[in-house]
Write a structure and sequence with these properties.
Length: about 350
């Protein structure tokens, strides 16, 4: 389950009441709340660019990734998330550029974000490191006609919330979002830190309620181990927080002959945060495409009634760029020499 704020926690843990809770938020007249946490994917340990754009400069080729996640499939209006991201090397591998397009829907709320990224690499005696920047726009939409209040009237041809703060409009707003990240590698160990979804502006500033994106801080580290001919193993740890709550995801991925992949992970670190066990399988379809599937086995009580959670991912990789590529030589023209 994604790390959640109080509002999202109630919406996702008690789905039968989420419309009522949103209505109560409006009726209480809160002037500002924080938006739900960013979508989290169990396959993010493979698609690290999703949460840390600085990693893109370490891939010497163009990579395009598409992800679809359905969470708690037995619940109407359950969370559904889609993500498409891509990046490619620039300046002969010194830097990289990319973009991220993400959608997320839960109940009456829909989100859309489009961002561009840039990463720059630096070489040191001990290894390599990079920094990444992200900038873009985020849209939030709320269908107020789908909200329900305790005293409202909801007939076939009439919707009356009987609340002065609510109407039947589909409200929408856009805000700029930014992010900053860093990544480093050292003898098979790689990892990074990032912060994303920073915005100086709140959603719905002209409405009775404002909706501010809340920054998310992330720490990730993994270690690549070769166990035998054609067999590798990658344990990883992902910690993310909004500075109010913390969640962890411990995962281990194995691969054989770079053709077949399997993994297992656990989300949570305490009785209160323990959420799900993630089972991952993957297969290389050809030289360019790899397909992954993930199934979350719920450990919290919500999963008993909410149903299963599925996630699929398709990764496309262009042919590797030559590792010995260098900028073209400078040719001095005698006509311009003094």
């Amino acid at each position: 389950m994604p790390l959640a704020f109080n509002i999202e926690f109630n919406m996702r843990i008690i789905p039968q009441k989420w419309i009522l809770i949103i209505g109560l938020i409006f009726s209480l007249g809160f002037q500002e709340v924080y938006s739900q946490q960013l979508s989290h994917f169990s396959l993010s340990t493979i698609n690290k660019f999703q949460f840390n754009p600085a990693v893109s400069v370490f891939d010497n080729t163009m990579v395009i990734t598409g992800v679809h996640r359905n969470q708690w499939t037995n619940i109407a209006g359950s969370p559904s998330s889609q993500l498409v991201n891509a990046y490619l090397p620039l300046d002969y591998g010194i830097s990289a550029g990319g973009f991220q397009l993400a959608t997320d829907a839960i109940g009456v709320e829909n989100s859309l974000s489009l961002s561009v990224t840039y990463a720059r690499m630096f070489n040191f005696e001990w290894g390599r490191a990079s920094v990444g920047l992200l900038g873009g726009l985020e849209q939030k939409r709320i269908d107020q006609s789908a909200l329900r209040t305790p005293g409202g009237f909801y007939g076939e041809n009439e919707i009356n919330h009987r609340d002065p703060l609510l109407d039947n409009r589909n409200i929408s707003s856009w805000v700029p979002v930014f992010g900053l990240s860093a990544w480093a590698t050292y003898r098979g160990i790689e990892g990074g830190v990032s912060i994303r979804q920073l915005s100086p502006i709140s959603h719905f500033q002209n409405e009775e309620i404002s909706y501010r994106p809340k920054g998310e801080f992330s720490l990730f580290v993994d270690y690549f181990m070769v166990l035998d001919d054609g067999l590798f193993f990658i344990p990883s740890l992902h910690v993310y927080s909004d500075l109010r709550k913390v969640q962890t995801f411990i995962h281990a991925l194995a691969g054989f002959n770079n053709q077949y992949f399997g993994g297992i992970g656990i989300r949570g670190y305490s009785p209160n945060s323990m959420d799900a066990v993630a089972l991952t399988a993957g297969i290389r379809l050809n030289d360019r495409f790899v397909f992954y599937y993930n199934y979350d086995i719920g450990l919290s009580e919500i999963y008993q009634a909410a149903g299963s959670t599925h996630e699929i991912m398709l990764v496309y990789r262009m042919p590797e760029w030559r590792s010995d590529r260098t900028p073209p030589p400078v040719i001095y023209n005698p006509r311009f020499l003094e």
